[in-house]
Write a structure and sequence with these properties.
By secondary structure, the protein is mostly helical. The protein has one domain (4-215). The protein has helices at 4-9, 11-34, 38-54, 56-65, 70-96, 106-118, 120-136, 144-153, 158-187, 194-215. The termini are far apart.
Length: 216
């Protein structure tokens, strides 16, 4: 079993520690918001959960239903995805090296390996640039966690993987934010419930895609 001191000396351990610190910062920030607005703090929590389970598009859409500014939506969703990547990625690396055993993530890691096989030719051809496109491409199932693990599996160094993945997901979040904002602006001409309609559609589409993926 890996010792804690040895973990902190490794690159993946430092990434994990930074992820935990960023998570702690986020938790403290949300608690601080409670001092000024319980409703806003609750909405931040719901946006976090929505992003985690349904992806960045759903998280951003919920941000608009909560009437957050573009800047808050972008920054918050970036932090959420950064934390997720910097915690799950090191756990995968440690699991791959058999330093730790994580049963609850076993099926997820298996699915990522299948994704890597599926796009093997693409990554062999384009390498680091392919990884950036994979993470940046603003659609479902090409998220930063999957991308970061694929980066490791194709032999890209830890810090380079983090740089590629976090920059790619940041750009994707910005694109999604302003794309959805324009869609909502157009739909608002017909219904004031446009943010809720888009959020519902995104969640339904995400669930359908996940269901179809499980059946294949």
């Amino acid at each position: 079993m890996l010792k804690f001191s040895t973990l902190l000396e490794s690159e993946e351990g430092k990434i994990f520690l930074f992820g935990l610190m960023l998570f702690l910062f986020y938790v403290i920030s949300v608690i601080s918001v409670y001092l000024f607005s319980v409703e806003d703090a609750n909405n931040l929590i719901v946006m976090t959960v929505t992003n985690f389970f349904f992806g960045r598009a759903a998280g951003i859409s919920y941000g608009y239903t909560a009437k957050f500014s573009d800047e808050v939506i972008i920054l918050t969703n970036m932090i959420i995805e950064f934390v997720t990547v910097m915690i799950i990625y090191p756990l995968f690396v440690l699991s791959w090296k058999r330093s730790v055993r994580i049963e609850m993530l076993k099926s997820f890691f298996t699915n990522v390996k299948l994704q890597r096989r599926k796009y093997k030719g693409f990554f062999q051809k384009y390498g680091k640039y392919g990884l950036f496109i994979f993470v940046w491409f603003p659609f479902w199932m090409t998220g930063p966690v999957v991308g970061s693990i694929i980066g490791y599996l194709i032999g890209i160094r830890h810090y380079i993987t983090m740089l590629i993945v976090l920059s790619g997901t940041s750009l994707a979040i910005v694109i999604w934010t302003y794309f959805l904002k324009e869609i909502m602006y157009m739909l608002n001409q017909f219904s004031s419930n446009a943010p809720y309609i888009i959020l519902g559609l995104i969640i339904v589409i995400t669930l359908v895609l996940k269901f179809m993926k499980k059946r294949t």
